[in-house]
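User: Predict the structure for this protein chain, please.
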Amino acid sequence: MSYTPILAVGGTQDALWALCFAVGGGCLLTILSRRLHLPTIVLLLLGGFALGPEGLDVLHPNALGNFLPMVVSLAVGLILFEGALTLDLKEFKQTSTVIKRLLTVGVLITWLGSGLTAYIVFDTSPSFALLMGSLIIVTGPTVIVPLLRRIRVQQKLGSILHWEGVLIDTIGVFTAILCFEWVVEGGGAVALPNFLIRIIGGAVIGGVGGYLIYWMMRKNWIPDNMVNAFALAGAMLIFGATELIKPEAGLLSVTVAGMIVGIKKPRQLREIKAFKAEIVDLLIGMLFLLLVARLELQQFIDFFEMGGGWVLFSVILLIRPISIAASSWGTPLNIREKALLSWVAPRGVVAASMASLFALSLSSKENPVGDPALLESFVYSVICATVLIQGLSAGIFAKILGLQRPAPNDWVIIGAHHFGRELARKLMRKDEQHVLLLDTNARNIALAKKEGLPALHRDGMEAEKLYENEQALFGAGYVLALTDNVELNQLLMQRWAEELNSESVFGWIPLDSPTEEDQLTGQSVFGDLSRPAVIGSELLQGESSFETVLWEEGKSLASGDWHPLFIRRGKQLKAIAQDASLKELVKPEDEVICLRRAEGFLLRALYSGGFLHLECESIESLYAQLAYAATAHVPTILQNQVLEDLNEQGRIFPAFLGHGVAIPHVYCGDLDYRICFVANLKHGLTIPGQDEAIDFVFFIISPKGDSEGHLATLAEIAKNCRTERLRNQIKGAESIDEVIAAISE
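Assistant: Here is the predicted structure, written as structure tokens:
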């Protein structure tokens, strides 16, 4: 048996090295750009030139031979599939008039204006000029998001630029694919049938394939631990099947498939998006190194000698301003805001990938329509000019125009429970202090939005992704981890410290936590408070409230259970760290935001509890009956666990107050509020070591983490049982109301 090798041994090794080096190098440069908070495309562009034949000559994309277009085409297809997953028709319907016009009128002006400029300057065919113009329609979100975060423009303008970049991807890709199909077939009546076959075939296969992916997920045919692999394999299968039927139609089919899955929203969509985003980051890094390393400086010299400078001038200083003027006609945007929108329009990954893919495809044909090198030079020149020139000057331009927001001062609270929502409401100030709630609990987020609070149904652990991609987080300067889980708070603080810094990250870490302060990333706060769910319950029942104290010289907090949480000084809001001294931090005219927990812990616990008449012959029998009563009163309480905790406490530290009163007490993780049962023992229970038989019991169950309220309740019991008169009055009660009345008096 004989065969014809595709590549020689040396060629195979070179191809393998080029592919592996591009994947590894692209990933490392992507990580470095995230750490430096730079647009990823900048380092990838520089890295491609530096590593290719024009630089160190260690990366040779041409070693892949005819496989390079295939690799690029498949990678671009997967990138487009991931981008289409994020397309939300509701977001388009709900966007402002300016954004809708930018996605329609603005697209036409950019496309036709750029095409006309290329046609005049380069003297190319009309169809090829339109193809060139279609490739620079998109403004890449991977570039615009870090840029907006750095220049900190006003939120209205940031929202316009952000959503233009996110939503225009699919529109630009559709336009570019349509133009490319027309150019490939040469236009005219001969090309029309093939053109329609590609469009219809790609749309049908993509639509059917996308719906099948959704249908199989909805029917739970795919195990959850295989859903990401299935989505990736499905996209590749759709792409490959379409390419077999009609080459150059696969990009359209995977875009349509991604749109179908994104619109249908299977329950696993969130996991698929997260997985796809990681794959796409890897593919983008690989693509840019492979594609940029192919470019030669001479082709850019030729581009500018042909009049490329005039084209860039037209694209940046004429076409974009005309697009903004037409899109903002009749809207409240003023001249300064229009000027900034006209200046900020960086192109990114999708434009570069599509340009190189089309150039490779055209180069493989015997008589290509137009100059593939000119196509690439044009698109990459626009990318470099818009990313570097606009990226470096946008912040200065925004500052000169007076459209730059102050340094990030907004807060993100991770935990949209009742405590988090009430705290956000207290901290927010219109046009001064913005607070955003994050939570994975959909009900909490729905309640927050119903109450008019900004909230996102997102996982706070995805700090890097949220910080880079969420428009609502662009002004975030501080993060507060406020979940009931101490270990989760510590992890959240670590993740967000990587995006902000340790001084800007805070978390609820109780005083009795085993974590040492010097081992903690960020700053612990609210350590003297019970867990957030308990505080939320107290706020809901009116047992706690937020109070603002205007500080004066020599002032101190009023007597009572006050917990200083934040200091507001002008427009600055600072959380009070665990080990900080309030008197050293606060200055006259500062506002101190406190949580005031009402006194009367015992009374509130009694209102939630009940009165018991018991007969028992041993302490074990007493504990068993108390555990049973607790479970009967609150079904979520585990009887065996309460009984085990009572017995354990009795062995270590018997809870006998004296004078015939016992106060057994335990913590329960299934409670968000404190309960106190009182029990009258019909026959006194004699206990070794006690002077008097036990005839009355206070049984306290507190939520885990509520050590302060728990100890305060025990102290109030001791105080009320100190005098014989009141003690006898309590023991003589026949109902919980009589006990409450005796204590209240």
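The chain has three domains: 9-400, 410-599, 602-744.
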